[in-house]
Amino acid sequence: MNPASPQAIDAAIRALSAEIGLDPSAIGPGSIRQAVADRMAEAGIGDGSEYAELVGRSPDEREALVELVVVPESWFFRDRLPFVFLSEAVAGPFRSRTGVEPLRILSLPCAGGEEPYSIAITLCDAGVPADRFQIDAVDVSARQLERARRGVYRPVSFRGGDHSFLRRHFEPDGDGFAIVPPLRESIRWERGNILDPAIADRPPYDVVFCRNLLIYLTPEAKRAAMGAIGRLVAPGGWLVVGHAEPLLVDPSRFEPAGRPGAFAFRRRLEGALVSAIRPIPAAGRRLDSKPIGGNPPRSPASPGDSAPGLGPSSSPVRPVPEGIEPESESEITTLANRREWGPALERAGRLVRQRPNDAAAHVLLGSIAQAIGRLDEAEASFRRAGFLDPRCVEALLALAALAELRGDRTAAENYRRRAARFRAGEEIA
Ligand SMILES: C[S@@+](CC[C@H](N)C(=O)[O-])C[C@H]1O[C@@H](n2cnc3c(N)ncnc32)[C@H](O)[C@@H]1O
């Protein structure tokens, strides 16, 4: 006999939807009824109203209930193509880039670890050294995280055909397999809830795997989760969702990427980030025109803005040598607007070499670097632009957006204040 009363079940549903955003219809009424019955038996409670009161007031009780209702099903290389995408579109190009920060990847939710370990194996097999990537793995279930940390898996975690990775990265352990230590240590495990507003208070990631979570959430929780994901994926970075979730991805922030079946998206430029690309002068601006704002270059506004060996006194305007075609900002802008990032970046690099004193050229290079997620390079370009022309509002706003993405709200506010001051100054002038 199942003693869970409608009152206890209603209270549990309310608690679960507030706590983890669970839509009860996604897991079926029987599962919640059974979980409530189990919890009542465990707590020695026979009365539904007493359990309703307990689940309403006790965080520990809600946590215990969450452990019973979450769906932790996962397996290695689930859906396969997302990992092919990771290897081809992310790891391959990343490997050939030097001097960039390690690749940052988030697996949320990571369940018992099959997904983040599959990510680590993919990167490792693609030739990315372990010190060139960082994987953070987050789940709301303490029990699943415990299983993930242990790293021992039964055959049910290995489905599909190709298990050659087992030989390379696992060793036999009883009737299962244990992941080898170097891979186990490449992942940082963390308990976290996608609905916690603080979840996105961290630098954004190059890639976020958020698979098979959105389908279990109420419409309101889906919106909140998408908001968090939008902040967790770096501009130009990738989001990978589950096979039933592409329609839940916010198209105003993400566009489809990769082959069908990878369920991958790329984060679009948006809001403040677009502000960095919008000021790119329209076609026709002459290369020898004055810096943005028409002001002569000044000394740096603050020591942090200085760029060694670069500046008005150290870098005279260099005429483009005869026989070399001067770069065209308008053509580079057109390439960027068509998202032909490779040629746009290359030509913008040439532009700043031809026009090292032109703040606008550095803003253009910074905007393109920012669009493809090379945030450090973007920041260096915007700083250089701000050094050459401390009144360059576009550079200041872009620096504000980048500081905000890093979570540095004070710096962001300072840049914004300076931008507002110069904008106001321009208006007065
Ligand atoms: C079906 S598993 C998905 C695992 C893996 N991403 C995959 O696709 O194989 C769903 C996981 O979501 C976790 N989860 C449920 N609600 C959550 C929330 N609000 N925040 C974080 N994790 C949550 C559960 O604990 C469970 O481990």
The proportion of residues in beta strands is 5-15%
Widest beta sheet: strand line-up: 6-2-1-7-8-10-9
CATH architecture of the largest domain: 3-Layer(aba) Sandwich
Stretches where pLDDT is under 50 for at least 5 consecutive residues are: 271-317
Taking all residues together, what is the mean pLDDT? 83
Could you state the CATH homologous superfamily of the largest domain? Vaccinia Virus protein VP39
Assembly form of the protein: single chain
- Write down the CATH topology of the largest domain: Rossmann fold
Order of helices and strands: HHHHHHEHEHEHEEHEEHEEEHHHHHHH
Number of helices, where a helix is a run of at least 4 consecutive DSSP H or I residues: 18
Main sheet: strands, sense, barrel: 7 strands, mixed
N- to C-terminal distance: 82 Å
Radius of gyration: 26 Å
Keywords:
single chain; 429 residues; alpha/beta; Rossmann fold; Serine Threonine Protein Phosphatase 5, Tetratricopeptide repeat; 3 domains; seven-stranded mixed β-sheet; three-stranded antiparallel β-sheet; 10 strands; 48% helix; binds S-adenosylmethionine; methyltransferase; Bact_Chemotaxis_MeTrfase
